[in-house]
Amino acid sequence: MVTTMLAARVSLSPSRVGAVINRNVGALRSGPSYWLVLVSGFFEPLLYLLSIGIGVGALVGPITLPGGRVIEYAEFVAPAMLAVSAMSGALSETTFNFFFKMKYSKTFEAILATPVKPFEIALGELSWALVRSSVYTGAFLVVMVALGLTSPGWALAALPATLLVGLAFGGVGMAISTLMRGWQDFDMLTTGQFALFLFSGTFSPVQDYPPAMEVLVAATPLFHAVELVRGLAIGELGWSLLGNAAYLLAMGAAGLVFAARRIQRTLCV
């Protein structure tokens, strides 16, 4: 495992990774359908913010954070929707699109006929997923600042955290996609993603959950994403944010390496 990773690092070519990214840019320019998918993915978390964060928030009232600070409900929900936006952007690119290119269009097989290596394909696809994720989160941060849900300074602080969220879920998304047998398997992924969306401290503090469920939620990736992004977006800093960041970084790296190895085993035969 370690030998494989070191070999991949030594032979890694930024130009070949860039070629994989450029192929995706070319697909983006080929027609309006991809743009429609890209734009539509931004609106789901935004609509949740407007309907639940602001609409229901008027009925819920302020939220008291574990440290005793009191904030409006919309301020509590908005960073969570920002983390969800980063997750959704990365997963959309590294699940359905990645699976189609690997299993059906044979895009990766064609790329492997060139000097590009499996690790470079995985890294290029993950980099492109980060571009898509950053488009979602950048636009969402502008909305948050416009609505007064964060300040421009804290928005800039939260932006790198959203990239880390995209890295984590993009890496795992690729890894999962290499294991999928058909489109029906994505039903399980969608169900899991929706469960994370509901129960990761997105709409209420995890301290409100029963103790056993609180422990379970604290082990999930979206919880760490929400905690990291929320802490930076509202200026609630603490050492625990480093643990959240380390969790996400390890998750993304493991997913990237696993996906590259699966591409190697599946297509390089």
Topology diagram in text:
Blueprint: H1 2-11, H2 14-29, H3 32-60, E1 63-64, E2 70-71, H4 73-104, H5 107-112, H6 118-146, H7 152-177, H8 186-198, H9 211-217, H10 221-233, H11 240-267
Antiparallel strand pairs: 1-2
Description:
- The chain has 269 residues and is mostly helical.
- It has one domain (31-267).
- Helices cover 78% and strands 1% of the residues.
- The protein contains 11 helices and 2 strands.
- The protein has helices at 2-11, 14-29, 32-60, 73-104, 107-112, 118-146, 152-177, 186-198, 211-217, 221-233, 240-267, and strands at 63-64, 70-71.
- A two-stranded antiparallel sheet has the order 1-2.
- Helix 3 packs across helix 6 (118-146), helix 6 (118-146) runs antiparallel to helix 11 and helix 7 runs parallel beside helix 11.
- It starts with a helix and ends with a helix.
Please sum up the structure shown:
GO terms for molecular function: ABC-type transporter activity. The chain is an all-alpha fold and 269 residues long.
